[in-house]
Amino acid sequence: MSRMIFVNLPVKDLKASIAFYTELGFNNNRHFTDETAACMVWSKEINVMLLTHDKWRSFTTRPIPATTSSEVMLALACENPEAVDAMTGSAAAHGGTADINPKQELGFMYGRSFADPDGHIWEPFWMAPAAVPAE
């Protein structure tokens, strides 16, 4: 099995969250989706598990943070600056909050941020291929 990441996020309204992430360009993996959870696929390696609060609590006893606090920011690489703008605009148009942090325009990198309807912070960004060091 290749290395993959499954980011787990607690959500208040699973159907609304599925619709939100679908609008951002994620695909639903129905094999890992039921009435308590949905697997939303960004790429072959990156998946987001949307979990109802009850489902979330079956994995941990730690409290679900308020939408006014932040523990992580999830950055997603986009093909170009226009894709960054499109994702951020789509988030705002479908229940998220755009530009919760200042826009980053560094020449070789461009990024914006948004919060999903549950307050989870995402940062779509683009980096010029020439700026990425060779392995």
Task: Summarize the topology.
Elements: E1 5-11, H1 14-23, E2 27-29, E3 37-41, E4 46-52, H2 53-57, E5 73-77, H3 81-93, E6 97-98, E7 104-105, E8 109-111, E9 114-115, E10 121-127
Parallel strand pairs: 1-4, 5-10
Antiparallel strand pairs: 2-3, 3-4, 6-9, 7-8, 8-10, 9-10
Protein name: Lactoylglutathione lyase
Domain VOC: 3-127
InterPro entries: Glyas_Bleomycin-R_OHBP_Dase, Glyoxy/Ble-like_N, VOC_core
Briefly, what is this?
With 135 residues, the chain is of the alpha+beta class. The chain has helices spanning 14-23, 53-57, 81-93, and strands at residues 5-11, 27-29, 37-41, 46-52, 73-77, 97-98, 104-105, 109-111, 114-115, 121-127. The strands form two sheets. Strands 5, 6, 7, 8, 9 and 10 form a six-stranded mixed beta sheet that branches. It has a four-stranded mixed beta sheet with strand order 1-4-3-2.
